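Submission sheet (multi-component)
Chains listed below:
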Amino acid sequence: MDISHLLTSHSRNMEASLVRELLHYSQQPDVLSLAGGLPDENLMPAYPELKQLTDSRQYGPSEGEKDLRECIVSIVAERGIQTSTDNVLVTNGSQQGLDIVSRLILDESSTILTEQPTYLAACQVFKLQGAKVQDVMSDAEGMSVSALRDAIEKHHPKAVYLIPNFQNPAGHCYSLERRLEIAALLDEKNILLIEDDPYRDLCYDNVDLTPISTLIKQAPWLYMGSFSKVLWPGLRTGYIVSCDAFSPYLVKVKQAVDLHTNRLGQSMITQFFKSGQYPDHVIKLQKAYKEKRDVMAEALNAELGDLIEFSLPAGGMFFWVKLPAGVSSQLVLTEALKDKVLVLPGTPFFPCKSSLDDSFLRLSFARVSPAQIHQAITVLAKVIRQLV
Ligand code: PMP
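Outcome: structure written.
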């Protein structure tokens, strides 16, 4: 597959870091390396109380730790993505995955298509490269296929960025039919798919989660995952799985931006997966978050059912609430904060000024207890009723 037309002129001519390429030789015990800038392990503090720290003390590979990449290969295999460690890049959260991909393909002459609304920090990254972000009408089943076709024909985008499972912020989950239609269209037009899937394991209802990347037959694709929503966000660990053609380029950008992801975090995540605790952990998360989701739905219906619109998210962390006509989400934020309740106005999730909508709130149920959800929604209801 030739992807050179997707790369910016800078990334097409990017050189690999020789130091990084030679690193694996320096890990062979019979090689005397005078090459890298690796410090002497014997001079590092031993700190025996934290064994993982000692194991992770030296520089590591830019691709990520081999054993973590093996875990990721089996994680995505369960999702239907057949790949090898060569096509897995460990990143500093999926946010860095977005940054790396953006650096590779986007510049001032590029357009990227997104859902409407979409994850605000993805747009931040795309815009930082000077790219134009064009949103495409989306409904409860996902991005509209006819609107996507029109947008591809009109804007000639470099890529389409989608969050098909429990979308941030709208909470939507794509139907299988929509996934198939979008994959077929991207194949037809040979457009790169960037599929961002950090919420997938936070699934509370019986919905189809087939990655669109697996439905694509010939177009290029990149699939991003993260451990932030299911393990420890502070470890900043995520990954990109790519079709073959992309992997060498992605690694070169990773070399340039930060050499490699923190090894201690990678080691903690690998150990957790190898311990076999992950399946039970996910069941625990699903049970707890599902309960909170239901409590929030109940509270919203009971307190505001006559005024607002929302649909029940089948997974993830967010309700996307449409406020009554004329009520500004910014004003709701200001007023609710006076009563110590913090809500997120939906405006920053609209990348294009033309589609900007001030009538949505994003409410997360993840970090509050059921009792706190009731308390917060009571305040919110009071504020909204005063503003109607
Ligand atoms: N993509 C989406 C859709 C997200 O919601 C988030 C986190 N809010 C990220 C990517 C980034 O996640 P992280 O960098 O923590 O893996």
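Remark: The longest helix spans residues 278-304.
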